[in-house]
């Protein structure tokens, strides 16, 4: 049973600048090969959890003041972010992190830095396999890419580090619905093919619950709900507060109705 578990966060409390904790007694589990969604509105504590796991929290003057984080049986909450990266825990931050004056391929190669850039050809091929759009543009400067392509680039760069556990902060942010779906579809494929465990923070609950196995819903720095995404999707409270009819659903039904009308005309 125990060796089924990739990551275990045990009752952590986190505070910034020695102030009152913003995370209070948070516990969660990610099983091997699972995608776990971390849902919550702005300020609920999603990024803080990701940064606590990756060790980046100390760069923001944050501190785990109570509790522990265990990865594959080893406590990691006192390790530096560099050592945590070396264990295969790689984080994709929210927002723009591309090097605008480097090409796509050069940006991808930056991802190999944590393992001294060895054998990057094989990894590049893998990234291009999942993101053919990046292959087609590999010689272009990253500064010329669209929002969706940039998201692919930063996820691709994380893949170059050969992650075993990927933390992705709000992948859907700022993207058009069709691109959001494409990104999630690829993330799911990577998860299935490579057996990489993932924790994804999101405000797009519909999308996250569609692709994740398990979900945690954060409210004011605490876990308010934890369950399989299937159960969460049927939970009336979650439906009312987090599963508002999505724009993607709206587009889908719009498209279906168009197809239906088209079919009707032909029949
Ligand atoms: N570096 C920081 N210093 C002080 N407070 C912070 C810092 N980063 C985040 N916070 C506070 O911690 C809480 C949780 O923030 P965050 O983890 O970024 O939430 P989310 O990612 O869900 O939007 C918020 O109240 C936010 O204002
Ligand atoms: Mg955040």
Question: Could you explain the architecture of this structure?
Answer:
The chain has 267 residues and is an alpha/beta fold. It has two domains: 2-88 and 163-266, Rossmann fold (3-Layer(aba) Sandwich), CATH 3.40.50.300; 100-159, no CATH class. It is built from eleven helices and ten strands. The strands form two sheets. A six-stranded mixed beta sheet has the order 6-7-8-3-9-10, sandwiched between helices. A four-stranded antiparallel beta sheet has the order 2-1-4-5, covered by helices on one side. Helix 3 runs parallel beside helix 6 (147-160) and helix 4 packs antiparallel against helix 6 (147-160). Residues 247-254 and 256-267 have low confidence and may be disordered. The structure holds adenosine-5'-diphosphate (ADP) and magnesium ion.
